[in-house]
Amino acid sequence: MSYSRQIELDSGHVVVISASLQASGQIEFGLHEVVDRKRGERQLPEQRLFPRTPPVGQWLNSSPLVLAGPVGTERFQPLVGARGWHAGTVSVSSMAHEQGVDTFATRGSEPIPGSVLMALTQACRNGQDLSLELRMRAQVEVVTVMSEQEENLVEVELSIDDGDPLTQYWQLERGEQHGGELYHVLSVDRGAAELLARLREASSVTVSVVGSLVPTPTFDLRDMFNSLVQENIDNCGDYADPAWQPLTEAHRGTTEAGVFYYISYPEHLDGGRRTEVRVGPSEETGNTDANSVLLRMVCDGQQRWIQLGDLPEAEQGEYTARSRIDDGEWTETTWLIRVHDGNWVYTNPPFDYEQLRGWKTLEIELPLNSVYRASFDLAVLFDNPVQTNIDNCGLPLWPLTYVPLVDVRGNWGELSYTAYHWRDEVHTRIRNTVAVDAESEGTLSLDYACYSELRVDLHSVELTDAEFRAVTLQIDGNTPETQSWRQHTYSSSDQTGLAWLKAPDLDRLISQLVGASSLTVTIDGSGLPPVTFDLTGMFDTPVQDNITMCGSHKPGETRNR
């Protein structure tokens, strides 16, 4: 009879201590050192036999052993947030979720009559399950082989560089009907590492599904194993722990301080997770509606926002509000009050989340139909069981380490795009340019860009000096909304006094623009007529990932398409 247990020491060594009960009744101890996740030979100290009935409460020591393995070996930090095309032929992606990081590198075959899709994929699922997969969509059945050990096995022959066929049995994962076509995924996991090692030394492989009328494609393996996600696949099963772990269970409750908290986690839709925390006013303020108002923090998918909701009845529009933080001075700012479905009156307070995180109290005065006052205890708002989800809203489980695309420029109709490397930074810009009016040669540009930070700008406007300027936006046929954009002036080679305007609240604005078809812009005090931008394709250019991952670029690394 023997027992063993793995232990990680403070030094970084990982060991397994074994104990075995001998026929004599003595207990023998040994030790295995674990290196690269493999258990080494058992090491036996000279003094390793303990008596059948050891003294109670007394520790017994073996003689010492010297550990030879590496100390503090760092596990692999996966590349997360990369997707696109490598060498124009290999589709790559790496994305994080609660179970780990999924990484794929897919090489399609040449067009095959009768087959919509034939593709060969290297995959590391959940950061630990390495496999080679054959994906196909074809109007054929796949013949499976029954065995005593497993069901749905498919016999596959691989000819590497036109060599003798290698026969393997792959698992049929799916065989489903989609729009009149059968969609199949065959995969091999046991022995996948050895097979991939052979393929990365080859230039081509032909894959035949034995006994089925599935086409027999030949895959060009050049560029298959040198993409930016290859290290993820090579280190599959040896990933470092994630930076944070979200709460995913269905939490709902109220703290002793009266803070309501809630997590919705649809299993079928990772991006649909919603975490919400809300609290009412902390004290009586003399308003009859004070007890109903809610200060809410929400992480809805990838976006975090703060809302003051269930306000008393009011007309939608801008109001001059007074607010005070902790025991500071009262300040006046413009708040936009919104009305939803005629009865939900709310506003998004103009406060930065990180600022709120460090404050204790928030007091407000809003001149609605009457002056509305409320005070909120921020200390109790942030003291809740699900705060980690709010704090890390939008952050992946592993730090984003996107490798940006550079040396790319082009045009899509009225759109132009560019990505280039300058002073150790990657600058990416998508520019949408329209004429101001039919008679004028002037133009106005809407820029969506990453210059070390995400920006949405209006360019090439000649304006008088001002720090801020009111800009009215109408997205599609929705109700126009006026925002305050910061103004910057600059000069070109043939003009002076030009200006560009920088948008506030980018996350919210971009979420509104993605999926919209048009944006009409009116700039207060510019003398310009309303200008309408066609948004078709603006968020689908080849450099979109550079902007989506702005601020998460892997330092010192770039890639060419």
Provide a compact summary of the structure.
With 561 residues, the protein is mainly beta. The protein contains 7 helices and 37 strands.
Strand-helix topology:
Elements: E1 2-8, E2 14-21, E3 27-35, E4 38-43, E5 49-50, E6 83-86, E7 90-97, E8 100-108, E9 115-125, E10 129-138, E11 153-160, E12 166-178, E13 181-188, H1 192-199, E14 204-209, E15 218-220, H2 230-234, E16 252-254, E17 260-264, E18 274-279, E19 294-300, E20 303-309, E21 317-325, E22 331-340, E23 344-347, H3 353-358, E24 361-367, E25 371-377, H4 378-381, H5 387-391, E26 405-406, E27 408-412, E28 415-422, E29 425-435, E30 443-451, E31 454-462, E32 468-475, E33 481-490, E34 498-502, H6 506-513, E35 518-523, E36 531-534, H7 544-548, E37 559-560
Helix content: under 10%
Give the terminus-to-terminus CA distance: 60 Å
What percent strand?
Answer: over 45%
User: How many extended strands?
Assistant: 37
Strand order of the largest sheet: 6-7-8-9-10-13-12-11-14-15
Rg value: 31 Å
Give the uncertain stretches in residue-range form. none
- Mean pLDDT score, rounded? 82
What's the multimeric state? single chain
Based on CA inertia axes, which overall geometry fits? globular
SS content category: mainly beta
- Could you give a short account of the major beta sheet? 10 strands, antiparallel
| Number of H/I helices | 7
Kindly describe this structure.
By secondary structure, the chain is mostly beta strands. Helices cover 7% and strands 46% of the residues. The chain is built from seven helices and 37 strands. The strands form six sheets. It has a ten-stranded antiparallel sheet with strand order 6-7-8-9-10-13-12-11-14-15. Strands 27-28-29-30-31-34-33-32-35-36 form a ten-stranded antiparallel sheet. Strands 1, 2, 3, 4 and 5 form a five-stranded antiparallel sheet that branches. A hairpin with a 2-residue loop joins strand 27 and strand 28. The longest helix is centred in the middle third of the chain and has 8 residues, at 192-199. It is globular and about 90 Å long. The protein starts with a strand and ends with a strand.
